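Batch job 17 of 40 flagged for manual review because the log was empty.
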Amino acid sequence: MKSIKILDKELSRRDLLIGAGITAIAASVPGFASKADALGGPTEKWPWPYVKLDPQKTADIAYNEWYRVYCGAAVINSIFSQLREKVGEPYKSFPIDAFIFLEGGVSGWGTICGANAGPNIVTNVIIGPRTSGSEDGMRMGSELMQHYSETAMPTYTPKEPKFTGAMPKTVANSPLCHVSVGKWMKAANKDLGSPDRRDRCARLTAAMAFQTVMLLNQWKDGKYQTKGIIPAMNYGIQSQHNCTDCHGDKVPSPPAKKA
């Protein structure tokens, strides 16, 4: 394995790749930056710079990316791939394909839909999390999850669809992959592996990429006023707005507040 010498220290190609990976992760994961610094790895300033993008172009990219890396990574890639060209670093170092694990509600477990998780990663990287002094990144993520849950999806129609049959729309009333896909499958009478269902998820992913960029553009113009509601602030516990869809009479509740 070839190596190079930097400041009298010999580094292998493997060392350099590991260092680059640590830098990218440190810039995108809360609480990791200080650990990366302790390891001697440089970190970029956070949040990251943003320039306005075309929502329609972004949606088109996300639709096609779904067929390569699925929902979560497709949303991230549709936005960050453009920012790699328009801004450069730190987006060029961000491991966008690594987020393929968001597919199927995180590694196929049917939990948070990647079309929700992807936008939350994007908004928190660009706007910043609560620890940066601004709650807009988190609240925008919450608003996007509300949009996903309350809107008859998919709202996006591809210019060159990979499936050309009828495409029913359903309201998930949930940010969960299992509930969202399950309701659509029941309405469409299609199984999980059908080309209909696959294209439905690709279109839904594109719709969420479109909505994410639309809100980011408003934020860039200084016109964004969040509609995002953090459920824990309403219910006293982290929750969805529709617990009874799955839990019935077994919904966990927080203890009553002491007087």
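Reviewer: the log was empty due to a logging misconfiguration, but the result itself is present. The CA atoms of residues 140 and 199 lie 26 Å apart. Unflagging and moving on to job 18.
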